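Sequence, please.
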């Protein structure tokens, strides 16, 4: 049962990484690419590391539990560092004058935002 749960978490993590890669390739500008990378890479690494911790702690010996705790510490670090780094990259892009992508007025769909005076 534990191996099945760990395998499901590992597969979910790999799927989220794959979806993030596809999102990076398909998105039109750097901001939407960073949004995709920030969300899906954080969730993918969360699922992968949680699956590895579950798989490692299937035997209740002290060394295996300590390895699982170390994996959980890495998980906490990644959960804090990855969104922070993504925010810093977006902020640096905005400060350097990199304009976000806007839909052209001739394209179908919702109207673009109006510029403020």
């Amino acid at each position: 049962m534990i191996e099945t749960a760990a395998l499901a978490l590992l597969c979910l993590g790999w799927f989220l990484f794959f979806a993030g890669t596809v999102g990076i390739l398909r998105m039109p500008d750097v901001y939407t690419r960073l949004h995709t990378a920030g969300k899906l890479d954080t969730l993918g690494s969360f699922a992968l590391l949680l699956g590895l911790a579950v798989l490692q702690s299937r035997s209740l010996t002290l060394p295996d539990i300590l390895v699982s705790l170390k994996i959980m510490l890495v998980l906490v670090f990644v959960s804090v560092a990855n969104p922070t780094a993504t925010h810093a990259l977006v902020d640096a892009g905005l400060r350097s004058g990199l304009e976000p992508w806007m839909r052209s007025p001739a394209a179908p769909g919702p109207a673009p935002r109006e510029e403020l005076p």
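Residues 7 and 51 are 7 Å apart (CA to CA).
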